[in-house]
Amino acid sequence: MPRLTIQPSGKTTEVAPDTVLLAAIQAAGENLVSKCGGNASCGACHVFVHEGRKSLSKTQRAEHEKLDALVGVGSKSRLACQARMGEEDVTVELLSFV
Ligand code: FES
Prior knowledge:
Order of helices and strands: EEHEHEE
Helix content: 10-25%
Bound molecules: FE2/S2 (inorganic) cluster
CATH architecture: Roll
Number of domains: 1
Largest sheet: 5 strands, mixed
Shape: globular
Radius of gyration: 12 Å
Oligomer: single chain
């Protein structure tokens, strides 16, 4: 199973493919808040994906639109509530400024 590494804590966990990233991060014990119930509308689950980005599910329109409206978004940005694990290891960085 692919491994998810969460920075800055350095926690790692094995995650089944197709698992929503937000659920996997929360299951690992991280306090990543979802204010919108995972509907790509609050932006609170914004993370940077440092490794394994291409293995995640593709960014859909609602996620693109929300990311466009957020401050501090970069090429590594994803909404954890919209991204699903693929077959490869992934490293994400949780942000504190949202
Ligand atoms: S939980 Fe609200 S945008 Fe992801």
